[in-house]
TrEMBL record:
Name of this chain's protein: Metallophosphoesterase
GO MF term list: hydrolase activity
Pfam families per UniProt: Metallophos
SUPFAM superfamilies documented for this protein: Metallo-dependent phosphatases
Stretches assigned to the Calcineurin-like phosphoesterase domain: 5-199
Species: Liquorilactobacillus sucicola DSM 21376 = JCM 15457
Keywords: Hydrolase
Source species, domain of life: Bacteria
InterPro entries recorded: Calcineurin-like_PHP, DNA_Repair-Maintenance_Comp, Metallo-depent_PP-like, Mre11_N, Pesterase_YhaO
Keyword Hydrolase in annotation: yes
């Protein structure tokens, strides 16, 4: 009897814009747009090469319920490749691509099964082994917990659960199909394929309960290698191996000023660091980089001004503009001395972020401006809150530093 083997992925977010970027060079813009598609195409290629029994996609194929025609055509093409290799796809819709499936019909190739809005168990056989797969699709953006409706494992060889949701004990306030580890483990399933959280994490090894993370980072908050899990059974137990995809990787580089650093020395130091990164991550398609500079409050004023006003960033971007595989999008100045001397109260900072720098609060501050669609869409982006907060902190640091 052959071992069952499948791929678990989630959060493709096709059509999702990259966040926090501006002045993107033309030679990079097209690659950014197609980055998620390229990553998923690589996963499909791996599924065919490994001859997996099926593919699980745990929600958020698209970034919205109304994806572009280009994104839909792309997904159809990739699903057809899997169909030609006789590989089924089982997917559920998440909080981004939610749909009321009672009123909407999704047209996918015959090898694709979309779970309905109610908890449903799909049963099938793989090389004579009985498999049950239980899941559900979001019919609206926010839904309550659904795990109580999942059946216990029965006599089938393998029972898998697929959930796009958040681990939480705050069931009254959690909005995205909340669940607890205790709930999941009580079902006695052999594997839980999770989606929604963009950071890769193994929540449990017995049974395996895994967030694969998204397949392509969309902002500086989503750094690191992205990929999927290849799952197979060894010695009558499912084992999962993480497999990276060669996507576009976000990297933040922390650097500290040295006492004798001049503008040119600093520029050379950053350029050498960029070369080092490319050498150490040769398998990555391309990089989006932010430099985080830590400096004392007595940094030479003219040097500080050239950094804050973007002169350093502009010159660096000009020097590497011919590099199609690297985009330096920001040089962030952080005043380390202020915090070291306790001028900066970290508790007050944390409370300020909690009270002010939250999306809902900033949205209220915008007042009537949000009636304009482009401003409304601007505030919806998760990176905007962070960006406003960072800029406010920079201005406060400058004032407290006495400049």
């Amino acid at each position: 009897m052959m071992a069952v083997k499948f791929i678990h992925t989630a959060d493709l977010h096709l059509d999702s814009p990259f966040e926090g970027l501006k002045s993107i060079p033309d030679n990079f813009a097209k690659r950014l747009y197609s980055a998620s598609m390229t990553a998923f195409a690589e996963i499909v290629e791996a599924a065919i090469k490994r001859q997996v029994d099926f593919v699980l996609i745990a929600g958020d194929l698209y970034d919205s319920p109304h994806p572009s025609v280009a994104a839909q055509l792309f997904l159809q093409k990739e699903f057809l490749k899997l169909q030609q290799s006789e590989i089924p796809v089982y997917l559920c819709l998440g909080n981004h691509d939610f749909l009321n499936l009672e009123n909407t019909t999704l047209v996918y190739p015959e090898n694709v099964y979309v779970f309905p809005n109610q908890v449903t168990t799909k049963r099938f056989f793989v090389d004579g082994q009985s498999v049950s797969l239980t899941s559900f699709s979001y019919g609206k953006q926010w839904i309550e917990g659904q795990i109580d409706g999942f059946p216990l494992k029965g006599s089938e060889r393998w029972h898998l659960g697929m959930v796009h949701g958040e681990i939480s004990t705050d069931y009254k306030n959690a909005k995205y199909a909340p669940f607890s580890l205790t709930q999941l483990k009580s079902k006695n399933y052999d594997y839980w394929a999770l989606g929604h959280i963009h950071k890769r994490e193994v929540l449990s090894s017995t049974p395996l309960i895994i967030y694969p993370g998204n397949i392509q980072g969309k902002s500086i908050k989503e750094t690191g290698v992205k990929g999927y899990y290849f799952v197979t059974d060894k010695d009558n137990k499912l084992v999962a191996d993480f497999c990276p995809v060669a996507g576009i990787q976000w990297i933040e580089i922390p650097l500290e000023f040295e006492e004798n650093d001049t503008f040119e020395k600093l520029k050379n130091k950053i350029e050498n660091k960029l070369v080092e990164i490319k050498q150490n991550f040769s398998s990555v398609q391309a990089f989006i980089v932010r430099i985080s500079l830590k400096a004392s409050s007595d940094l030479e004023p003219s040097l500080k001004e050239r950094i804050i006003k973007g002169v350093l960033l502009g010159q660096l971007q000009n020097d590497i503009q011919s590099d199609d595989n690297l985009f330096l999008y920001d040089v962030l100045l952080k005043n380390a001395q202020i915090q070291q001397n306790n001028f900066w109260d970290k508790e007050v900072e944390s409370k300020a972020k909690e009270l002010v720098f939250q999306r809902d609060n900033l949205y209220k501050l915008a007042d009537n401006l949000v009636k304009y669609r482009f401003i409304d869409e601007h505030f919806i982006q998760s990176s905007i809150t962070e960006s406003i907060g960072n800029k406010a902190m920079t201005y406060l640091e400058e004032e407290m530093g006495g400049d």
